[in-house]
Amino acid sequence: MTTASTAPVPVSLYGFLTPKPGHADELRRLLTDLVEPSRGHEGSLQYHLHEQEDGRFFLYEVWRSQEDLDRHNATPLLRAFMNALPEHLEGSPEAYFGEMRSPYLVAVA
């Protein structure tokens, strides 16, 4: 007899953000300031910021569950970031979201 797993399904959020001309430094600062606090939020499995050669920023997050991501998104830190974002962003973020279908492997240091 098999039983369904009740373990949370990890979710990922990733995408590109393009700064307005002259706003790359401020957008970089805002994004960089999110990394360490977000990594400390309950349920954060991965949180990475990359800068592309074309000037876009790529953000990659993995959360233990949708509930953990929702809790993270409700923090004052994230709300303040989202309020400041339009001033520095060219167009809308190119964002993607989904449940992980491959096993999440935890690295052992």
UniProtKB/TrEMBL annotation:
InterPro entries: ABM_dom (IPR007138), AI-2_Isomerase_LsrG (IPR050744), Dimeric_a/b-barrel (IPR011008)
Any Pfam family: ABM
Domain of life: Bacteria
Domain ABM: 11-97
PROSITE patterns associated with the record: ABM (PS51725)
Database matches in PANTHER family: ABM DOMAIN-CONTAINING PROTEIN, QUINOL MONOOXYGENASE YGIN-RELATED
The protein's name: ABM domain-containing protein
Organism phylogeny: Bacteria, Bacillati, Actinomycetota, Actinomycetes, Streptosporangiales
